[in-house]
Structure formats: C-alpha cells, structure tokens
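Here comes my example:
=====
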Amino acid sequence: MKCDECCQVCGLETESVNHVLFSCTFARQVWAISGFPSPPGGFSDTSLFQNMKYLFSTIQDSSQVVEIVRVYPWTLWYLWKNRNSLLFEGFLYDSIQIWKKAEDEASLWFVAQSLGSEGKGVGVDSEQKREVKWKKPPRHFFKCNIGMSWSKTKWLAGAAWVLRDSNGVVCLHSRRAFGSVGSKDEAFFLAFLWSLESMISHRIFKVHFAFEGRVLVNAINKPKAWPSFNFKVKEIMMLLVNFLDWKVMFELPAANRGACLIAQSVVNQDRFQSYVALGQPRWLSVLFEMERDFR
C-alpha cells in the first residue's frame, strides 16, 4: 500500500521523527513559545540524536530556568500526539494550545511527585505532617486561603486567594500582581486587603481568612499589642465590618500551598495578568483534591 510520506503540516516531502519534533515549522513555533533555550545554530534538521542530547544537557544546566526546561518531555509528547491527531482525526491544535497542554501536564506531574514525597515517612513525623494539612471551615462558612510571593530585587509581589466551602470544594480562585512593593509585610497587607475586597464584591460574607503573615494576623487579632500596625489594621477593619462573621488565622505553609503556588507564578514566571476563575486551576487539581481528602 502506498503511503504519503509528506508532512501534513508544512508539506515537506519526507517526514521523519526528527522533523515532527524539531524541524517542522509548527514544531519550531512551539519551541519558540515555550521559552526553551535554543541551540546556538538552532535544532538540527537531520540528527534526532543531536537534538535529544541537547535537551538532556540543558535540563542538567543549573543556570537555566527549571520551570521552563523541565517541560520538554511533555512538549515532545504533545507534538507527536498532535501529529497523530491530524492524521487520524483530521484535527490540529495550534502552537499555543500545544504548549499550554504540555505546561499544564508537567505542572500536574511535578505537584503529584512533591505530594508523594511529602507523604513518605512513618511514626511521629508522618502524623505531624498530616496535622498541618488544610482544614475545612465550619458548616455554612467559606475559607479563603491567601498566598503571597514577594521579590526583593524586582520589588514585585504576586498574590492569590482560593475560596473553598465547608466540604473542601474550591468555589473560586484569583490572582494578581502588585508593583513597587518594598517589603514582605507590605506585600502581605496588600494581598489581604485585596482578598477582603474580592470577597465583598462576590458577596461572600461568612469567611475564615487564612494566610502565612503571622505578624499581620497577630496585629489584626490583638491590635493593642502591635501599635506600629495601627494604620494598616484600621484599613482592614473598615472592610471587615462588611462581613456577617469572620475569622483571621495564621496558616502554616504546608496547609497553604495551593494559594502560594498560584501567587508564585507572578514572580517566577512573570504572569502579571489578573483574573478570577471558577473552581481550581487545572495544573493544581491534584493538590486541591488531595487537600480535600485530608480535611
């Protein structure tokens, strides 16, 4: 049976594995979008071995951005899967969709691996780890976990909140960036103030707020003991009066991981676009489902 050996995407006469993964115009677009550092002369048009060797050496280079280079196995997989989709189903994703799919799947995998390693251990240590897992709010209440990531060199803060009901189900989540932030305390204050405003705008009035800013939490709950925070606390209280019932609590990092990972994407990956979305981000689904089971 005669087969068409042409690339169905770019029309090259002889299609090869190396062509699909590296030298096809479509593959080049995906690699460019991914931010993966390109070889000095670009990927080889003829040698799959040379290209794979370059990928392996780059992932071991400590000077590279880990979050970018670690995605390459999923990039390869989705490039090949996309080629098969075109051949057998007549459907082709665009280059941005392919990269997003690869990035999302990679993030899910690495989150799952880190959760698995945290779960290892026996005896007292294992029990202690279990105790600091996320805890659900009382019935008829919501819990708003607030994450914050601050860069001293960039004067940049990323903030995120994740709203869950008493069953541990993620109802909403949001992310935003703050510029010209001079300290970690200021970053926590801005993140918390924004979270309060968000809950009010979404008409969520019975909320437990949880975040890692211990000093600010103490200043809110015991303002007389923290006179230097008087101005900030007054601003916060002006918003808290809008709530029917509220509680502000300190959250250990192990119980606040989801919100923090979303916030870190601002500082680590330059994701400055603000958004609000239903449910949980897909790339953190495993994490939130596991926290729900631990509630």
